[in-house]
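User: Predict the structure for this protein chain, please.
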Amino acid sequence: MSKSLLLISILTMSLLSCPVFSQAENQTGQDSTLLGLPGDNLDLYAVLDLFQKSKTIEEFEKSLNLEETGINNLDLNLDNKVDFIKVVTKQNENDFTFILQVPVNEKETQDVAVILVSKDKDEKVTMQIVGDKDLYGKDFIVEPKTAVTPAVTANPAYTGADPVTVSVPASTTVVVVESTPIVQYVYSPVYVPYVPPYYYGFYPPYFAAFTVMAVSVYRHNHYYYHPHGYGYHGNTVVIHNTNNYNNYNNYRNTSNTVNNNMAKGNYNRNSAPASQPVSTSTRQSGASATTRQSSGTSASTRQSSSTSASQQNKSSSSGTSRTRSRGGGRRR
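Assistant: Here is the predicted structure, written as structure tokens:
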């Protein structure tokens, strides 16, 4: 094989061996950056996508909590099991709030996020999901993203029956929220308010508390939601219906257990990608300590044995001297 062919083969193998997902994750930019907060384990982009695809609130709640969908990875009570998220609906005329809540224990409930659906006087419907500030920080808002339609210009050489005679300017179109099944349902005459009957320790038969996955794996599984179809407002507050959101804040639920875990940094071990090496290092350190302790015990045993032998030798030597002394006296 010539040198040039060998070089090409090496370069090809190098490219094939590169991990594909790393480039895709880098393209997500800020949206895929870990917050270092419990919200890292519930991707609101994926939640909003699921909400728009669900026909009813019950269906949305079920799909949200199924292990197969892989959307819910929250563990607020730190039992290493995924928490059940129930969906509570509030309505005020044409404004709906869908509150995602976790029963943390028998007495405490923590709001995770709220989906705001509102219809204005012109019958335009808006939709946003806002992460709870305790879990996502301030002003974490996700909404359907706008898509720009490119301009269309007439072709002067066109000879067909339907020519374009004017230049059509570029237009910005919003995802038609009104067409999503759950929006059509809640604004229809057949809508029946849903009240989840579940509470801590009592969950639907379809829910099995599955094990929490590593946050790095979870985030990688959801990166594709971020660059497609949704906009992230970061620290810029863009609430379409502030009255609806302010009304929700009047009955927002918070948990002392969650706040205490936050203050103590207990959630960081689940959010930090370097947690496993730390654990390995700890195990290695413990093993070393055991080895040192074992070595120290062996050394102590050896020292004790040496001391005992020395004492026995001295005792034997002393006894022999006394015997010889008594024997010599008798001979004399």
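The radius of gyration is 35 Å.
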